[in-house]
Each structure stands twice: as structure tokens, then as C-alpha cells.
Amino acid sequence: MPPAPDRAFASDNAAGAHPAVIEAVLRANSGHALAYGADDQTAECEQRFSDAFGTQVVTRVCFSGTGANIAALATAMGSMRGPHHAIVCTNWSHIAADETGAPERALGTKLIELPSLDAKITPDMLDSIAHLHGVQHHVQPGIVSITQPTELGTVYSPSEVAALCTRAHEMGMLVHLDGARIANATAALGGDLAALRSFTVDAGVDVVSFGGTKNGALGAEAVIFLRPDLAEGSEYVRKQVTQLPSKMRYLSAQFNALLHDELWIRLGAHSNSMATRLDEMVRDVTGVELGAPPEVNSVFPRLPRASIAPLRDWCFFWDWDTHVLQVRWMTAWDTTIQDVERFAAGVRTLLSEPKSDCRGR
Amino acid sequence: MPPAPDRAFASDNAAGAHPAVIEAVLRANSGHALAYGADDQTAECEQRFSDAFGTQVVTRVCFSGTGANIAALATAMGSMRGPHHAIVCTNWSHIAADETGAPERALGTKLIELPSLDAKITPDMLDSIAHLHGVQHHVQPGIVSITQPTELGTVYSPSEVAALCTRAHEMGMLVHLDGARIANATAALGGDLAALRSFTVDAGVDVVSFGGTKNGALGAEAVIFLRPDLAEGSEYVRKQVTQLPSKMRYLSAQFNALLHDELWIRLGAHSNSMATRLDEMVRDVTGVELGAPPEVNSVFPRLPRASIAPLRDWCFFWDWDTHVLQVRWMTAWDTTIQDVERFAAGVRTLLSEPKSDCRGR
Amino acid sequence: MPPAPDRAFASDNAAGAHPAVIEAVLRANSGHALAYGADDQTAECEQRFSDAFGTQVVTRVCFSGTGANIAALATAMGSMRGPHHAIVCTNWSHIAADETGAPERALGTKLIELPSLDAKITPDMLDSIAHLHGVQHHVQPGIVSITQPTELGTVYSPSEVAALCTRAHEMGMLVHLDGARIANATAALGGDLAALRSFTVDAGVDVVSFGGTKNGALGAEAVIFLRPDLAEGSEYVRKQVTQLPSKMRYLSAQFNALLHDELWIRLGAHSNSMATRLDEMVRDVTGVELGAPPEVNSVFPRLPRASIAPLRDWCFFWDWDTHVLQVRWMTAWDTTIQDVERFAAGVRTLLSEPKSDCRGR
Amino acid sequence: MPPAPDRAFASDNAAGAHPAVIEAVLRANSGHALAYGADDQTAECEQRFSDAFGTQVVTRVCFSGTGANIAALATAMGSMRGPHHAIVCTNWSHIAADETGAPERALGTKLIELPSLDAKITPDMLDSIAHLHGVQHHVQPGIVSITQPTELGTVYSPSEVAALCTRAHEMGMLVHLDGARIANATAALGGDLAALRSFTVDAGVDVVSFGGTKNGALGAEAVIFLRPDLAEGSEYVRKQVTQLPSKMRYLSAQFNALLHDELWIRLGAHSNSMATRLDEMVRDVTGVELGAPPEVNSVFPRLPRASIAPLRDWCFFWDWDTHVLQVRWMTAWDTTIQDVERFAAGVRTLLSEPKSDCRGR
After folding, report:
1. Do A136 and B80 touch (CB under 8 A)?
2. Residue B212's beta-bridge partner residues?
3. Which of A98, A101, A115 lies closest to C109 in CB terms?
4. Per-residue pLDDT tens over the stretch B210-258
5. Which of A309, A360, B320, C335 is least surrounded, with the fewest CB atoms within 10 Å of its CB?
6. Dihedral, CA of residue C175, residue C181, residue C184 and residue C187, to nearest 10
7. By three-state DSSP, how is residue A184 classified?
């Protein structure tokens, strides 16, 4: 095998923090500052988010992606009349599949998981639950939660989001956007603030979970209420769901670094491009089965069974769906073209070997 | 010892059902009727409650007192903006002390238990929690829940309730009245519908748990929303908290019997009067320590330690506070004057005996 | 149209109470009895359930089917180590689809809804969630909840239940059986206590929700812990989830009447036979599309669109799936052969009419 | 007024991060590392905690103090049989008073708040709730949660903790210790690892919330299960309550810096000594009313009403109890003797001024 890449393709949260983030934290570490958000870094962060979205938003900095989702959903649910409202999402959604039941625990709320092939929700899919309306034996749909980019690496177009928001609002629902990798979607849809706004404020989204951790932060997420009236009570809710940072300045500083000069979009664009390059380099390797080219920073190949373990031993990545021998290769803000080239070379080498040992599998 | 009473003084929920209630259930048991409230008995019941309160109320029939409290509080909390609101009550309140944590379980909500000597809440006591307001680390008071009559057998005057409602509303809170024994309070405060209204609608109460079970029903309680706008979503909430009766006609019929011709008030007045008579008959017995005369249907004497067990073996009642040798004698709608006379005679006999055996206790 | 049946085909919970149930309640209404289960009727009821299941069970009488499910699941979940366990059920299950989110509210627990064509769960379907095991981002399957008969009117064979229990137990899960219509399943599987035991105790089920309300009771359900060790804490849990009846004797008496001389099984057998007769009588009517003959007491025909409203106006029943023009006709313990004959005649009459008005629909 | 101190006395969480913590984070920021705890820093951190406690513990790194408390309590509650267990604490406890109802939200569990003058719980106070045991209408005490040092700045002696643990365990309860400022208690009780162990492992405590944030970290807390068997499921629970850090290495690295060479104890000792010095310097100032000398890093003086605002304007601190004009001055790891001297000088200057303007207040 050729030399392994310096950085594996496990996940973007395996990457470290960007130097600008580190510098910002160091700068913030000066003297005393009141806790719980009454600090200059947080005030700056709030302004930066309003600038980015092009409208006055309410920002609530949080620790984690799951935490931001819970704080966003609990606040939004608090604006509903009664605890019998439900959250509508897909079977792939992080809130449904990968948060160990945090929404049900914190909200006491049912998740209605719509089956979806591409991890997107369409207006028609909302129609399929319209019959629940007005029947006391059924939960009442209250919030639609979409993920952008989705857990399958697909990206909603702005018009898809807008159409969904329109239908959701017609049905009396709010729309939450889980943007744990929102930088990658923004990069994929144009790579500027107009792109960000196109699938959020302009499309009618009500509240966003805005991720920093997977995009070069040490650890920082935020709930952005695009409609400030929906933020009522959000500071209490954040505390109640254990997401109020004590020394908030250190989290806000990370966002200040990322938002400065649109660094966050550039990092997202870079990791996207690395996935595209990786896809291109292995697409013709016999045994690598690929779907459509990546829209963001992940590649989901199917591989010959016998190749998976040795390839992973050489350079780590995670399984995606073991039933169909599908794995996930994910790039990060710090993935280099050398990493991609080495990895592609390793894939090519391994899959070109005589596969006498994988017959019949 | 003299002959024991036919009915003990354990509790009003040890009594059976009034014949008129039984008859109403039998009458309701005719043919088919749609479940979940779409039946004639329930329509009649709803009208009867509006008539009794003298205003258009929304009625939600429930199974149990704890259930009605939960349905009332969960619906009212659903009208608050956010899950960070709390319920304010006394340390004696049934919801805090005797419901095995049902409110915290069903609502995920904190109960703020105000210490109270007489189980009542005054406006001043609300002032003691005013400092919580506006601080993100604290729950925000959302609902005041009072019990009428209280768990200690005291009765709020209409002006006391009105003053509390005024202060609560000024502080942005709603007022819930737990009326598991509302008939006894109504009887104590005048014994007619004007009395009922004086401490509920007229005083500014928002939502009532209206008890039937302790007053001659087989088992029937109801949530009465005195402000219909607060009832929004209550049918869903009732179902979610497991309080939606399937064959609702049989519960509604019980209320129809009790509400007819104010039977419920007469039953409450009777049990009150039996407690008054009992208090009068034992007040001069040496060893029986009594506080103020009973306002409703319970007497809380302190007794010599050695007398409690033999008296209970002869005619059952429950301890109230074993630390101070206090017990509770409770009358019911069917307690007879003969029951009271026999019980008083037994108390007198037992306490007049030479107490050589209780020295040193 | 011919004369309408005296009883419609809306639901078995639209039927009244059986005379023996009424008599038992009247008998129980004698003098005082301690509340909350310390009464003779409840002791008798507990013994009758142990006799019926042929083993020492723990019985907790509850108000409603949803309530019994919640009490059963909350107690069973309490035996799990940690709040991160989930309940596995089908998308058709009452707990998932028809309880307004009560399980999520009361337990804070995720429901994993397995898609199922016949509303049954097979061992293979459990295998499909085996990958969740041991991953901290996923809820851990804790309880499998099956419904017998299912919400689609199908019946698990004893060996199907046994195979599922074996697999569930191997995976460290408990098995709950929602028996809101357990009488109908018992009747379908042999019609005696051996039949009851064959798909419960003998098959390895851990806890049962035993329904009375849909089978001739005024309103009575029970949680039956087939493994008494699992009942630890169940009396507290029942209270916490608002399902502790105050005057329990009146609910226990209903079960005593139903369990006496296996009345409950006979009632279930009767309603099953009425559904079978109805199916037979309309099967050859043009326009009535039927699947397999009914196993229990419901028929799910598809009807011509134009016939549904007039037929319902004449004799009420509920829609099942409006997308495919499917309705549900349900028989009850008191459905008579005359009711069936009249209804079948009405169907035949209506569907034989010239359908000039439904062209193009 | 003299020059204001460089650092105010608002709180120890207003202080920044210690240089050693910053260095550790910088060192950890090298290359890729798997997320969610599968990294070298976390392995080291776990070992360091076992070394510190002198026994094999299970460590779960968390984001915040509230979060660690919730993760600890939810895991411990998960070892109880059933959801009807309650948490016993004081009315002063952070979990009861300052977490916006997070425990009730996340656990659905009642908190029993014992009134306490010094914010400690004694074995006798547990006896006062013994009567709850075995009664289905009452929650059952499951966990005692104490804070060390307490919210009032008092410190349990090791023997006090041991006596409480003994009684709690006799009553079937577990003991949780909220150690948000555990360094200050450790310093106060001897200042070495033996001191730490004396009031935790040696005393019988079951689970500890171990704070780093208030003691020089950027933000890092940990749940330490002193009995590893109690940690079962804790990794799932941590995720479910939104406290699983993605890039955990950066939190673990902070603990590695603090635990190295007992830096954390030295920082605690320093802030304690600064409070002691402050107390000594203002104790003789007329108008400053002080209780017992500080045991840890806070001083709670009562001040003349007119002095509070100008003093705060000059150098910030928080009110403690406005009803009695009591404020809180809190020192931190980085408070200097110069800060203390300047502040004491300011207090002396301000309170020596003619107070013509505060008559009658």
C-alpha cells in the first residue's frame, strides 16, 4: 500500500480547529467577562449573525448540535398551543436517528418520521399526514424539521425549501432547519451570503441550528431565530435544556472568527471540493460503486466486502450501511489534496489486487 | 365499647355511590352511543356545567382527581410561552404531596411549594417569588394552583380567592382551583350556585378541577375551563394524559345526576354538617384536642397515643400526622347521625377508661 | 332502504355494558370500602386474573386502554437500566398512532415504529434494528409492544408470539401485549383459558394490557404482570400516570362479572361471529371489496365512493383509509343477527341501485 | 474612590482560563482525532481521574455544570426501579433553584427541597421524609444530592458527608455530590488528594459532578461515577441529555492540565485565600456586616442600602438577597492580592463617607 494520508476520512468532526478560531479564543482570554452571554464577544457574535442573514435575528449560542436542535425545537414548540404537537422529520434525520432520543426526552413530544429516499421532505409528504389534523386521538403536526445538507449528503434547492415552508405554514406548522453542516450547503448553493439567505430567510425558514463544530471550531453551535418573535423565552429554554454556556465568550469568539470575512463559507467550499476530487479519482476504480457526484463533503461508495477492513485499517472511515456494503468517506476543512490523492491511490491499489479471497461473499 | 357505626370515618372516597347516580348510569346504559364524548349524556353534562357556573364554560370529563388536575394544568401550561414556567402551590397541596409526582412526570414542570400553615396561598406569598421574574436561571411562575377546600379542611373566602387571582393575573399567572371537594366548599360558603360562582368565576379563577367521586359518584371528575379560550387543545391534552374516557356517557351521566336540582351541594352540606356534629359531640371529651370547628367534612383531633389503635380497630380512620398524634376523621355524603353518635360514644367510652396501660408512652 | 339496524357498526366501544356487569356494580355499591384497591372486589379480581392465566400474576386495575398501556410500559421501562431504552412497535400500533403521543409524554421515550403490512411484528423485523445495539448515538431497544388482535384485525398465532418473545428476550427486550380486544383474540384462538394462556404466559409475554371496556364493561382495563418481579413499583407508577382509581371496587367488580364463568370469552366469540356473518352476507355484493375473512370482530371493506356517505347516514360506521375508500364495520358483544341481516340488506340495496351519480369519481 | 481592581468580584466564572489550560488545548489541536471520546486526551483524562480518586472510576466529560448534574442524576435514577423516585436536596441547591427546572424537564422527577439554614443536609433531615416510604401516593426518595461547597459557601466535613451517606444508603438512596466548586472544598479540607477522597470515595458518595469551568478552565465539567456499576448506560444518557461533546479532546485536555500536578487544588486554594483576605480587610469597616469567616471563595456581607449601587458601579458584584441587603463578593483563581486590597480600600472609602443620603432607607 502507498503511504496513508495524514488525515483520515472518518468525519469532519475528527478535524481540529482552524488557526483563526484558536487565535480568537486566545484573544478572548483576557481578564474578566461576565458569564452567560453578557460579554463583548457574544454581542459581536449576535451582530455578525444578523449581518450574515441580512435581517435582525436572535442568536443563542449552544454547546452541541444535538443541544442546539433541542433548544430550537423546545422553544418553537413552546410557541405552540399545547403539548400535543409533533415534530415531522425524515427517518434519516439526526434528531430521529442519532440523538439517542433526546427530543422525546426533553420535549415529551412525538417525532413523525416520514420515509424518504433522499432524506428530503417534499410538500406532498406533508399532505400524507394532513389526515391527522383535528382528531383528538392523533398528535397534531407542529414543526417540520429538515436537515441542510441532509444526512445523505443531498442539498435542498432554495425553491425546494421555499415550497416546503409555504406548505408547512399553510398547515400551521413552523420550519426548523438543522444546519450542522450549513457551511457545506451554503458553499454548494453559491458560496456567498446570498446563498445562505436563499434557503433560510428568503425561503421562509423560521429557526436554524447553525453549526460551527464540524467546520473548524473547537466546539460551537448556535440557534438562530430568523423570526425574532419566535425567540421569546429562548434564553430560559436554553438553560433548561442544559445548553447555556457559562464562559460564553469562548464559544462566541469561535463564531466571530468563522464569520469574519466569510471564513466559514470558504472552509465549507474547501471540504466540498475535496469530496468532489475524491469522487472523481476513484470513480473509475473497478469495485467502487458510486451514486451521483457528491453535493457536499461526503462520498458514499459501495465496496467489495473483502476490501473494506484492510482499507479501513490503512486509513480510517466509518461504515454507512453494512447490509449493502456501503461506507462513508468524509472530508473536512483541513483535508488536503495530498490526502485525497493518497487515499485514492490506496483505494486503487487495494481494489486492483487479486481478490481470490473474496469469492462468494 | 358500644356498637360500631355502620360507616367508618376513613374518607369520603370510601363511601359508595348515591342512588340517583346509580339510576342515571342505568338509564344511560341503553343501546349504542358513540365513544369519546359524542353522546347525549355528555352534551347534557356540558350544558349543566355552563348553567351551574352561569357562563359558557368548556367541560372535559375525566376519570380521576389527579387526572383532572394534570389535564387542567397541562392545558393551561400549554397556553404559556415556553416550557420554563412553573406551578406555584403549597407544601400541603395534593398535586405536590399526594400524586406521586404526576405533575412533574406529565408536564416536566417544576412545582414551587410555598410553605403555608393553613394550606392557603395569600397574595403576599406570591410576592415572595417575584424575584424569580426575568432571570434565565430560574423557572418563571406560570400557574397558581389552590385547593378549595384545602387539604387541611380550611376554606378560602371568595374575597381571598379574588385577591389572589388579582395578584396572580398582575404577575402574568393563571389560577387553577383544585376542587376535588368543591361541593363541601360550596356548601360552606352559602350552599347555592351563587356560592359556587363567588369563589370561582366571580373571583377570577381560570380553570377548575371539579370533583364528583368524593361526593357520591362512582367515579367522575371534570376540568372546567371558566375562560373558554384557555380550553384550546384541551381535548388533545386530555387524551395525551390518558384521561379520555371511552364510554364517556357513563361518567357524564353521573354528573347529570349530581348537578340535577343541586344534589351535589346538598350532599356536600350533609357531610359538612356531620363533621360539625361530630366535632361538637367529642369536643368536651378529655384527651381529645381539637382546633377550630370544622369548616367542611373533616375533623383533625389529637388523641392520646394509647387510644388511637384500639379506636381505629373498632372503627377505621387514617392517621394525619403521627409525630403529633393527630388523626383525621372524615364524614361522607352517606354518613348518618347515628354513625356520628355511635362514633362519639365510642370515643368517649375509650378515653374515659383508666389509662394505666399508657403510662410512659 | 330497509329499516336500519338497532345498533350501528361504529365500534365495540359504542356498545353499552352487559347486564352482568351492571349487576356486579350494583352489588358492589354497598356500604363503605377503602379506596385505592384495599377492597374485597379488588382482591377477588386479582385472584380471578391469576386463575385465568393459570399462574400468580400481579394485576393493576386502570381506567382506560391508553392508561393501561402507559402504566404497563412505564413500569416495564422502570426495570430497564437507564432512560435511553426505546419501545418497538408497528406503525399501526395504538400506542404509536392513536394515543396522541401519550407514551412519549409520560415516558420521555422514543417509539421505534416498524412498518408492517399486517400490523404484526416478526422476529426478522427485530433483526432490522439490531444494529442500534451498543452505539451511544442510538436509543437501545427495550420493549417490544405487540397488539393482539392487531389494529388491522389480524391475530398472532401462539407460535408467532412465542417466536417473537424468544427473539426479543435474546436481544434483552421485554414483551408487552396490548390486549384492548384480548377477548376477541382468545375467542379466535380456541375460546377457552388455554387459548388465552397459549399466546400470553405460555408464549413468554411479560406484561399484558387486558381490556374490558370494548367487551361489555362500563369502563375497566387492567395491567397484568405475568412475571410478578416486573411489577415492582407498579402501584406507584399507576398513580403517577393518573391511572389509580379511587373507588376501585367499581372497576374490579366489572372484571369480576366478566371473568366469572368466562363470560368475557363468550362475549368476544359472539362479536367475532357477528363479523364473520356480516362478511359472508356482503361478500357477493358487487362493489364490496373484501380481503380475507375476518379473524375477529371487524370487517374492512372497500366501497364505491358514492355509496359511503348514504350508507353511513343510514347506519353509522367510521372511515378507515379514505385514500383507498376503505371503511371499517365493527361488531360488538351486543350486535344481534338481526342487526347484521338488516345492515347486509341495506348494503345490498344501496349498491344495487343504478349508480349514475358516481360516474367519474 | 481609589483605582478599581483589575478584576471584579462578580463570580469565578467571570475569570478567564489558566495559561496551562490554554496550552493544553493548543497541544491537543494537532491533526485528526475521532470524536465522542475515542481520543488520547480523553483516555488520559479518565486515567487521571481514577488516579485522583485513588480508585477505578468512570468519567463522563460534559459541557456544563447543569449538564453534568443532569447526566449524573439521570444515570443514577436509571438504576432505580421505576420513575416514581425523587431527588432530595435543599431549597438552596443549584439543581432546585438555579437550573430553570432542568431536572424536572429531563428526568420528569420530583425534587424534594428540604429547608436548610446552612444549605447542608443532615441525616435527621432525611428522617423527616421517611414517612413517604411505601405509600403509593408519594414519590419515593431515590437520590440525595448535596453540594460541596454549598451554595452558601459552607463546607461539609468528611464525617458529615459520611454520616449522611450512611443514612441515605440505609434508606435505599444513592448520594450525588454537586462539585461545581469541588476544588475549593478540597482546598478547604486539607488541600491534597487525601482531602478530595475524604469527602467523596471514603465517605461513601456514589457519583460526583466535578467542576472545571469555575476553576480556570475554558469550559469543562465531568461526571465521576465512584461506583463503576452505577455508570451503566451513562454514555447513552449523556448523549440523550445533550451533553456529549463532539470534539471531546478539547474538554479532556483542559482537565488534563488542571489535574496535572494538582494544579486544580492550588487554584482552589488561591481563590479561597483571596476571600479570606478580603473578609479580613473589610471586617472592621463600619456598615459591613459579616457572618463567619469564609470557608471557600465567597463573602456574603450585608451593606448599607445606599452603598450598594455606587460600590457596584465602581467594581461589579451580584446581589445575593435584596430583602436583607446582602451581596456576594466572589474571588477567582486569578484574583490578585492587589485586586483584594484595592477593593477593600474602595469599600472602606465608600462606607466612610457621610451618609446623609441614606437616612430612612
Report:
1. no
2. none
3. A101
4. 999 999 999 999 999 999 999 999 999 999 999 999 999 999 999 999 9
5. A360
6. 50
7. helix
